[in-house]
Amino acid sequence: MKTLYFDHIRCPLHRYTFSLKAIREWAERTCEGRVFNLFAGETKLALDETRNDLNQAMPADHHLDALVFLREWKGEQFNTILLDPPYAYRKSMELYQRMVCSPFRQLKDTIPNCLAPGGLVITFGYHSIVMGRKRGFCLERLALFSHGGAIHDTIASAERFTPP
Ligand SMILES: C[S@@+](CC[C@H](N)C(=O)[O-])C[C@H]1O[C@@H](n2cnc3c(N)ncnc32)[C@H](O)[C@@H]1O
């Protein structure tokens, strides 16, 4: 049986997830090696990260649609890919300057091209399994960020790429 690590952390909710110290530090502890931060946003992480955000105003190395970036990347494979997209159309319109997330299923199917075997995909959102076994991933760590009151928790999952 595989061990699943679990963290439960209380913190407020913010549209720029990593501006919250508790979440940023969890991400920094959990990431490994060369990190590709696909929806990078405002906050730089204390990591060896390559940053992408469609919004030109964000501090990033690239400003491409996430799916376009993954499809066009010809560089070295990453050890960790961080996913923190806007999930809902309404949220994109209201909170992220009308930047709409690429089709998420296509994004997930393309990720293995850019990730080294043994690497991690770390996702912030509403699901515990994101990449899943069919794509060759195994859930290794979960965190629940509890925002209190009537606000839903944020689920972070770390899935290890173990292709056959
Ligand atoms: C939930 S925020 C996360 C930001 C970051 N993780 C942080 O904590 O600051 C989503 C980010 O994705 C960017 N974004 C939206 N659609 C995108 C797309 N299609 N490709 C790349 N970035 C996108 C937005 O500009 C926004 O900064």
Describe the structure.
With 164 residues, the chain is an alpha/beta fold. It has one domain (5-161): Vaccinia Virus protein VP39 (Rossmann fold). Helix content is 19%, strand content 30%. It has four helices and seven strands. It has helices at 21-30, 66-72, 89-95, 104-110; strands at 5-10, 34-37, 48-51, 78-83, 115-125, 137-146, 154-161. Strands 1-6-7-5-4-2-3 form a seven-stranded mixed β-sheet, with helices on one face. A hairpin with a 7-residue loop joins strand 6 and strand 7 (154-161). It is globular, with a radius of gyration of 15 Å. The two termini are 18 Å apart. The mean pLDDT is 92. Residues 16-19, 39-43, 52-55, 58, 65-66, 84-86, 96, 99-102 line the site of S-adenosylmethionine (SAM).
For the sheet with most strands, the description reads: 7 strands, mixed
* Low-pLDDT residue intervals, each spanning 5 or more residues: none
Mean pLDDT: 92
The largest beta-sheet arranges its strands as: 1-6-7-5-4-2-3
> Would you report the number of β strands?
7
CATH homologous superfamily descriptor: Vaccinia Virus protein VP39
**Beta-strand fraction estimate:** 25-35%
Query: What is the rounded distance between the termini?
Result: 18 Å
At the first level of CATH, what is the class?
Alpha Beta
GO biological process, one term: methylation
Protein name: Methyltransferase
GO molecular function: methyltransferase activity; nucleic acid binding
InterPro entries: DNA_methylase_N6_adenine_CS (IPR002052), SAM-dependent_MTases_sf (IPR029063)
